[in-house]
């Protein structure tokens, strides 16, 4: 029991690595997750437009992209982008692995976000499109100004969950060998474990992940629940001085 506690819950090792985790590690984890999500939102919205296109030659490339990046394990995608591109002398981000990490996680997010946007857009009633067209708006204008904003509102909780997933997937970029100052949570814990041969640094990293993701998960679930339930009417919402409506036929029954 003593060896187990020393290996996983060594308080000295946890306190030693925790400042680096909270400073450098958490900062870079959030940078990678936020920028990759921004890339995923931009590319995902474009892909979702193609997925709902009426012409098959527009849908086909988007469907192939989504199927490939959803079918590949995330660790394979990170390796192809972060290790494969530089080894092929394709270096859009120079020698820094941070750019490749953001690109890899962003391309993965784009595939999932495209399906999220597609389902949200297709959940908007068809009458919204017909109403816009009846006002003289073009199909694209109606889609961008009326249908897409409503569809995005429907999937906001799912997008927030995707950010949580991006935070956790950022741990895979340790494969790229981030430099000091660019390291994320897992990479810092791994380096500390390699020096001390003690797994308490992994426990410390896990605690930081949990402290960030669990409250955010509950917040997203609460937001999702409130959106589904809507605003419940209260007494204050009732019009003042207005009598309740009498059901149709009630007066006839009373007279009878």
From TrEMBL:
Stored InterPro entries: AA_ABC_transptr_permease_3TM (IPR010065), ArtM/GltK/GlnP/TcyL/YhdX-like (IPR043429), MetI-like (IPR000515), MetI-like_sf (IPR035906)
Region (Disordered): 230-256
GO molecular function terms noted in the UniProt entry: transmembrane transporter activity
Domain ABC transmembrane type-1: 26-220
Subcellular location: Cell membrane
Keywords: Amino-acid transport, Cell membrane, Membrane, Transmembrane, Transmembrane helix, Transport
Superkingdom: Bacteria
Topology term for the membrane: Multi-pass membrane protein
Biased composition (Basic and acidic residues): 230-241
Cellular component terms per the entry's GO annotation: ATP-binding cassette (ABC) transporter complex
GO-annotated biological processes: amino acid transport
Transmembrane segment boundaries: 30-52, 64-85, 97-114, 135-152, 202-221
NCBIfam families the record matches: HEQRo_perm_3TM (TIGR01726)
Family per similarity comment: Belongs to the binding-protein-dependent transport system permease family. HisMQ subfamily.
Protein name: Amino acid ABC transporter permease
Species per Swiss-Prot/TrEMBL record: Streptomyces sulfonofaciens
């Amino acid at each position: 029991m003593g060896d187990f506690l020393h290996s996983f819950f060594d308080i000295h090792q946890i306190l030693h690595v925790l400042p680096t985790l909270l400073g450098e590690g958490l900062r870079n984890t959030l940078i990678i997750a936020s920028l990759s999500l921004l890339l995923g939102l931009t590319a995902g919205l474009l892909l979702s437009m193609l997925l709902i296109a009426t012409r098959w030659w527009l849908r086909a490339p988007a469907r192939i992209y989504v199927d490939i990046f959803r079918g590949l394990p995330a660790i394979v995608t990170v390796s192809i982008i972060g290790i494969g591109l530089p080894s092929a002398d394709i270096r859009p981000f120079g020698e820094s692995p941070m750019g490749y990490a953001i690109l890899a996680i962003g391309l993965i997010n784009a595939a999932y976000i495209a399906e999220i946007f597609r389902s949200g857009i297709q959940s908007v009633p068809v009458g919204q499109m017909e109403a816009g067209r009846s006002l003289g708006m073009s199909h694209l204008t109606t889609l961008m100004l009326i249908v897409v904003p409503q569809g995005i509102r429907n999937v906001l909780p799912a997008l927030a969950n995707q950010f949580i997933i991006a935070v956790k997937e950022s741990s895979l970029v340790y494969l790229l060998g981030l430099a000091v100052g660019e390291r994320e949570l897992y990479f810092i814990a791994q380096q500390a474990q390699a020096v001390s041969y003690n797994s308490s640094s992994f426990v410390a990293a896990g605690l930081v992940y949990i402290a960030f993701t669990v409250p955010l998960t509950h917040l997203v679930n609460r937001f999702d629940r409130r959106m589904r339930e809507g605003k419940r009417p209260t007494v204050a919402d009732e019009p003042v001085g207005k009598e309740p409506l009498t059901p149709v036929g009630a007066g006839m029954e009373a007279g009878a």
